[in-house]
Structure prediction request, 401 residues.
Amino acid sequence: MTLSPGDPPLNGIRVLDLSRVLAGPYCSMTLSDLGAEVIKVEIPGRGDDTRAFPPFLEGESSYYLSLNRGKKSLTLNLKDERGVEVLHRLVKKCDIVLENFRPGVTTRLGVDYDTLKEIKGDLIYCSISSFGQTGPYATWPGYDLIIQGMSGLMGITGEKDRPPVRVGVAVTDLNAGMYAVMAILSALRVRDQLGIGQYLDISMMDTAVSWMTYMAGSYFANGKIPPRMGGAHPSIVPYQTFEAGDGKFLLVAGGNDRLFKILCGVMGMQHLVEDPMYCSNTVRVENREILVPIIQEKLLTEPRDAWLTKLRESGFPCAPVNLMDEVFNDPQLLHRNMLVTMDHPKIGEITQIGAPLKFSETPLKLELPPPMLGQHTDEVLVQLCGYSEDEVAELKKNAVV
Prediction:
């Protein structure tokens, strides 16, 4: 389909989404935000696992709602050969298939890449799994917690001399979902240029390890295992979390000697700038155990927002550690349309995080709310697959859809 002025970037692209829970749905929601039509296949009567995750709004899972806007829900029993036949017919109308089953499951169901590419030769098929489709761990079960631990992420997260800590959201799922989007967009360009589809194998473990970047670089350089440092930075001081006098927390980012001088001026501790123990970042890193408590003691003398005002007025990089209510009342995020509302057929008005991607010529349109289970089954079967209303009724009678 040719784009018209004002159309979102993926207008005309259709995605068949067999994924569930987090990594796959985050990927397909992003594709939907970009303008693709996403048909989400769910188990009849139950749906995506996350439909059962509390808390709920009018019986609908808030977890599910946060990951599935912009999609159409088709219920389909893939353990029934008639359900597989429906999917095969639907594949002919789609550009992309996305799944995140454990390796081997799609082959057993008859919805694997080798089978579906015989139906549509230029199909782009993306699999997201814990460890990838090959290798000694390929069939191991895995969740974000497992991958955070095995990738090294938890090994560098948490306070010194305390147990490792997982990042507060399932970042390895979300990271894999984002990498999957990049892979799919790249494959679309290849298809448009060369006319070929391909198979995309996205591993949560691979993508999480790719985030190790400079921490891995440090290990490669000196062979030393990076320690857990809480909110601190291994190469910059002061660059961490501090507590203010009202019990709230602020972030201080003294990224160079000039900024350290500004910080000391705001705190009324200019003598630290000339002290040979703190006069350069190199010696501050060496003497962090002495310097950090000095700064902490000073910051406890005033409330968080008082410090933030003084530091910002001086041009020093700083920030509050926001709790959720502060995040979603932040004037910058509100200005950037990162909080949106839409009408849900059962709940009424719901609130969603906005799209972080901004386009000057092809703006994104977040219009479709997260679907009710099976809400679009009849529409998809009749309009895309060519089934008659009587045939749809028969499929429903036999619990195929």
Observations:
- The mean pLDDT is 96.
- The chain has 18 helices and 13 strands.
